[in-house]
Design brief:
single chain; alpha+beta; 11-stranded mixed beta sheet; 4-stranded antiparallel beta sheet; 15 helices
Length: 518
């Protein structure tokens, strides 16, 4: 394939991702002339859960990534507000041929520990990530990279095993963060609790279960932040977080229960931020665990869930009804794939065929987010209609992730936040056999036909063919009743009116480069 065609394809994909553009009730843009921007202050962000780990090669959840992404760590490229890829630690790039991408690196950049950013640093990061001995759950996301080759001190080439058009989008995600080569050489295990990057904020302290604090990077290579630092404070109670925002004790809460929208909108001191996201929420089955190793049971449950009632009753119509585990804003989405109809008679019939005519007892695992608990209770009520008794197990977020990673669950309320805007990030991580466990396939699903279609789609360079492949593979996943699609996300945040300049990107990362505390 000619380089020009590949560039056109990349351009089309990035244009498609522009549909993710932030829309909000409050633009939160810093206003006024440059010399009027107020400097200083510590930004306080209150959140439901603590991070689980801070090493980008081992982070598998958005709350953890949110602490370091574009704050402590940076990648070669970055998505802007319209999810268009922009230069960051790489000044420019070119496609040498179908399987060779060349990046010219920014000079004069230092890591927080004083190490120099250069071609060696890029190679060290990806060598560690791609080494099977590292055991990174992110490795499969970069499986197409054969080698990172140093051309000179500030030029690297990514040599691929096969053409992979979405390479820039995966390099722009948190998984593409560049780590200090000094930290990697001296004590890589320490990175789980002490990140070292090139970003505008330097890691200061992590009081486990309480807070993580970052401080302004005085030696930052780019435009320095307006604020002196940021503290991510763990406040499990929804009402307490909101009260802290209302009084000004905290500035931003990026995990807002939908039940509080009216209260926020009526407040004189709070502002609501809303944006369409790339994530999808679903009810998932662990297909290796009884009774969900039987497709008839999975189909029965699928027929017994009234999804519209969940969107309206639990989510107050925040977000939209999903038809697959891929957002309409992601390249590869298809509206032709349909989930199972609500049909209690069909559900009972399938349960009888599976040998559960007298009923069934199952456990539903959920994290401790208010809406998820409410959804679990609605599902529990709905499944009683077919003789299925549901025991709800509510878990703190870190324990929840660990349970899923170990495959100890039967049925789970979960979501997948797409970090790239490309269907490969959904399909490979959620459904490919090699992604079972921490990489994202918490269904523990394995289907050789599905694996092949996913692999073909990530290698395919023709846009129309890729779309057809994703439609076909998503239909197979629905046929196998691996999950029940529930909701396309809409992200909410609330801030005190004394803060401006923040935004949430379409992957639900809190962006604070331009934050001003009045």
């Amino acid at each position: 394939m000619k380089n020009g065609i590949l560039f056109v394809l990349i351009g089309l994909m990035l244009l498609f991702a522009q549909a993710c553009s932030t829309k909000s009730a409050n633009t939160n843009e810093t206003t006024g002339k440059k010399d009027e921007v107020k400097k200083g202050g510590i930004l306080t962000v209150v959140r439901l859960s603590d991070a689980t780990k801070l090493d980008p090669h081992f982070i598998t959840d958005i709350p953890s990534a949110n602490v370091v992404y574009q704050k402590v760590y940076q990648g070669l490229v970055v998505p802007d507000k319209d999810f268009k890829i922009q230069p960051l630690l790489a000044k420019e790039w070119k496609v040498v041929n179908d399987t060779t991408w060349e990046f010219k690196l920014r000079e004069g950049v230092k890591f927080h520990d004083g190490a120099s950013f250069n071609a060696e640093a890029v190679k060290a990061t990806f060598d560690r990530l791609l080494d099977p001995k590292t055991g990174s759950p992110q490795r499969t996301k970069f499986a197409m990279i054969k080698e990172v080759k140093i051309v000179d001190d500030y030029t690297v080439q990514f040599l691929l095993d096969y053409p992979y058009a979405p390479l820039l989008s995966i390099l722009a995600s948190q998984e593409g963060s560049i780590i200090s080569p000094k930290a990697l050489a001296e004590n890589p295990e320490k990175l789980a609790e002490h990140p070292v990057g090139t970003g505008p904020f330097v890691f200061k302290e992590w009081k486990s279960g309480q807070e993580i604090s970052l401080t302004k990077n005085e030696n930052y290579w780019g435009k320095k932040p307006n604020i002196d630092g940021v503290v991510f404070k763990v406040v499990p109670e929804d009402a307490t977080r909101l009260a802290m925002i209302e009084t000004g004790e905290a500035h931003i809460n990026d995990q807002v229960p939908v039940t509080e929208i009216e209260r926020i909108e009526a407040s004189d001191t709070m502002e609501l931020y809303r944006t369409e996201g790339l994530a999808v929420e679903f009810l998932g089955f662990n297909v290796k665990k009884k009774p969900f190793d039987d497709v008839r049971v999975r189909k029965a449950i699928s027929h017994a869930i009234e999804r519209e009632a969940i969107i309206k009753g639990v989510y107050n119509n925040v977000g939209t009804l999903a038809n697959v585990a891929m957002s309409p804003k992601v390249f590869g989405y298809s509206d032709k794939v349909k989930p199972y109809d609500y049909d209690l008679n069909e559900a009972k019939k399938l349960l009888k065929e599976a040998g559960y005519e007298k009923g069934l007892e199952i456990t539903l695992v959920t994290s401790d987010r208010k809406e998820r608990i409410n959804m679990a209770e609605v599902i529990q009520s709905q499944l009683k209609g077919i003789g299925v008794n549901v025991k709800i197990q509510v878990m703190e977020y870190g324990a929840f992730i660990e349970t899923l990673n170990k495959g100890q669950h039967e049925m789970v309320i979960n979501g997948w936040g797409n970090a790239t805007g490309d269907g490969d990030y959904n399909q490979y991580n959620l459904f490919h056999t090699s992604s079972q466990g921490p990489a994202g396939n918490h269904f523990y699903y394995s289907n050789p036909e599905v694996d092949k279609l996913i692999e073909d789609a990530r290698r395919e360079t023709d846009e129309k063919t890729r779309l057809k492949l994703y439609e076909e593979v998503m239909q197979k996943e629905i046929d196998d009743a691996v999950y029940i699609p529930i909701r396309n996300y809409e992200y909410l945040a609330v801030s005190n009116k004394n803060v401006s300049g923040y935004w949430l990107n379409a992957s639900n990362y809190l962006m604070i480069d331009d934050v001003v505390i009045k």
